[in-house]
Specification:
about 300 residues, alpha+beta, Alpha-Beta Plaits, Serine Threonine Protein Phosphatase 5, Tetratricopeptide repeat, 2 domains, 5-stranded antiparallel β-sheet, two-stranded antiparallel ribbon, 14 helices, about 60% helix, flat
């Protein structure tokens, strides 16, 4: 799905909103205590169709000359459910970018700016450098509508089987829409949430995938695949504690999962706990001495 960016940076730049108008903006980081500045911006957005009640991807930026402070702030924000996007070197300094899907009014945007500026100061980071919105382009709505129309024609008794057929043929978007309908009709909710979560992962909707897979483990805490996949998604987000928690559930459910123990080892290694990583790496190889990934990790740990 296409996105269009709306940026509000400390330096102040021109922005394009739905290709309709150019709006010159001032620094959110500098002006976050001046409600009139932000309220003017949001009024302009709303006049162009922006729905402030609809969650969108807000990308937040921080700058510091010390990479260690930037990395530390990254870990702090990940624990607060921000998604790590990247660290780049900009004009001799280090820029951290994180994101979170949320809805803001002018007032809540001001408060978020104050909050993030305070977090930056508390963690010795020089600058909170504003935000960027990623707004969805609705040009694909017709295609999605056609898919829904096609799926809605499938008789309910055949729907789940057809959804599985789409899934197994890698027709991911059709499968997602079909499992949507299965969930709405209460048809095999555990499997429908699980398969829809995997579809969302394939389509790059990580947060949506996490929400669906967490629905699975609420229905069945011993669902091995859902716990394992959640571990992987949180590991990719560098939320090591949550990744470890889900991998622990996975290997408790299936103590013969050499890959589960290997991924636990990897999560602990990336968290910086070499001793525990080594223990789980050895458990993986106890279950399957031929696990090449565990062998490779063991070399790094020794």
């Amino acid at each position: 799905m296409k996105v269009r960016n709306l940026s509000l940076y400390k330096s102040g730049i021109a922005i394009v909103f739905f290709a309709m108008s150019l709006v010159s903006v001032t620094s959110f980081a500098q002006k976050c205590n001046h409600a009139s500045e932000v309220q003017t911006l949001f009024a302009q957005l709303k006049s162009n169709g922006f729905n402030e009640l609809e969650p969108v991807d807000y990308h937040y930026f921080f700058i510091d000359s010390d990479p260690k402070d930037i990395v530390h702030l990254k870990e702090v924000l990940i624990k607060q459910d921000y998604q790590y996007v990247g660290i780049a070197k900009v004009r001799g300094k280090y820029q951290l970018e994180v994101s979170k899907k949320e809805a803001h009014t002018a007032g809540s945007a001001i408060e978020r700016g104050k909050e993030l500026k305070a977090i930056a100061i508390h963690n010795n980071v020089e600058i909170f450098d504003g935000f960027e919105l990623k707004l969805e382009d609705n040009s694909n709505d017709t295609v999605e509508s056609d898919l829904k129309e096609e799926v809605n024609k499938i008789p309910s008794p055949q729907l789940f089987k057809k959804a599985l057929d789409f899934y197994n043929r890698n027709e991911t978007e059709k499968a997602l829409v079909a499992f949507d309908r299965c969930i709405n009709l209460g048809i095999n909710p555990e499997t429908s949430y699980y398969k829809r979560g995997n579809c969302k992962t394939a389509l790059g909707n990580v947060n949506g995938a996490i929400a669906d897979l967490e629905s699975v483990v609420r229905l069945n805490p011993k669902h091995y695949e859902a716990n394992f996949n959640l571990g992987g998604l949180y590991l990719d987000k560098e939320n090591y504690d949550r990744a470890i928690g889900y991998y622990q559930r996975a290997v408790t459910t299936n103590p013969q999962s050499d890959n589960g123990f290997y991924r636990l080892a990897e999560a602990y290694q990336r968290k910086g706990d070499k001793k525990t990583a080594l223990q789980y790496c050895e458990k993986s190889l106890d279950v399957n001495p031929g696990n090449s990934y565990a062998k490779e990790l063991l070399k790094k740990l020794n």
